[in-house]
Amino acid sequence: MAQRIFVIDDAATVRLYHRQILEGAGFEVHEAINGIEALEKVLLASTPFDLYLVDVNMPKQDGYGFLRELRQLDIRQAPAIMISTEAQAIDRVKAWEAGANFYLVKPIKPDALLGYVHLLLGAGGTA
Amino acid sequence: MGIIKDKKIKIVQQDERSRARDPDSLVAALTDADPTARRWAARDLADFPAMASALAERLTLEPEASVREALLLSLTQIGNRVAVEGLLAGLRSDDAALRNEASEALKDLPDAVAPLMSDVLTDPDPDVRIFAVNVLESLRHPDVEQWLIQVISTDTHVNVCATAVDLLGEVGTTAAVSALQSLKARFPEEPYIHFAIDLALKRIHED
Question: Cβ–Cβ of A57/B100 closer than 8 Å?
Fold first, then answer.
């Protein structure tokens, strides 16, 4: 059974880019366009997600807000990679404080993304 | 607990009734210790466009989400140059939530934002330029495509260009094709840029 990765980003092109990379590596990809929609999908999911790929800047609820609320939920927690256009050290600190495992700066190259995903899900941890 | 809460609400309401609603008093109330008083002041200041600078100044300092919402709404309702500049300042905030809220508010003010857009799109901070491009998404202004073409032709920051390419995929016409193709050559080692440009060109040619 493929591991489930939840891509949360308001930009449709970014979601599609990540989907192609991740599905190409054998993962099952789910999407949301902001933190509020993502939390709803997390709560409704019959099978927990294995990893979250979260954009920082999104309307309605940003990535930090989503992760803070996610980490309060009584569910099986999973690692999270936060991605952003912002490369300041303070942004990385905020991401870790919110509950992210890694903070990557856009644009992300396919090999780099898969490297971090495999690192968090275990060696060769795909389908 | 319910009784205590009711009592608190009553006190706040009585307090509200006793407060002066003239602009100077409302500006003073923007820094009140009670968030409810601050929220009411922010809301009522929408009737005083000359006080937009006070609302803008408070926007970057206000910790309460509900008060900030009232500040953003009043600034949007006022919609003059001072209000727009205050919202643009929100794009420079360290607070991601405020940046997003300011961006959303600016999208409601196309006519007021348009004269300032050229300046914001050349702001020294690439994150501000990215937000400016995001604001263009909902601006519904006749110059949007030309602004985006200008961005992808001149901006040196990959993420600013990537954001503009995303939007050109939605609003671009054949007028953008040449600039999109040239952009590929400027970022030969960025798979995302190539992916987004190919997608944008496909959508343009489909239309």
Answer: yes
Query: Using omega within 30 degrees of 0 as the cis cutoff, is the peptide bond preceding A107 cis?
Result: yes
Query: Cβ of B103 under 8 Å from any chain A Cβ?
Result: yes
**B14 in reach of chain A (CB within 8 A):** no
Q: E strands of chain A, at which residues?
A: 4-8, 28-32, 51-55, 80-84, 102-105
Q: For residue A22, which phi and psi values (nearest 5 degrees)?
A: -75, -40
pTM of the model: 0.80
B48: left (phi over 0), alpha (psi -120 to 50) or beta: beta
CB under 8 A, 24+ apart: contacts of A75-81: A75/A42, A75/A43, A75/A48, A76/A48, A78/A48, A78/A49, A78/A50, A78/A51, A78/A52, A79/A51, A79/A52, A79/A120, A79/A121, A80/A51, A80/A52, A80/A53, A80/A54, A81/A51, A81/A52, A81/A53, A81/A54, A81/A116, A81/A117, A81/A120
ipTM of the prediction: 0.88
CB contact under 8 A, B97 and A11: no
Contact: A12, B166; criterion CB under 8 Å:
yes
Please write the tens of the pLDDT for every residue from B176-196: 999 999 999 999 999 999 999
Contact A80, A51 (CB under 8 A): yes
Q: Chain B contacts of A11, Cβ < 8 Å?
A: 163, 166
pLDDT score of A81 more than 90: yes
- Give CATH for domain A4-125: 3.40.50.2300
Nearest chain A CA: its distance from B14 CA (Å): 33
pLDDT tens for each residue of B106-133:
888 888 888 888 888 999 989 889 888 9
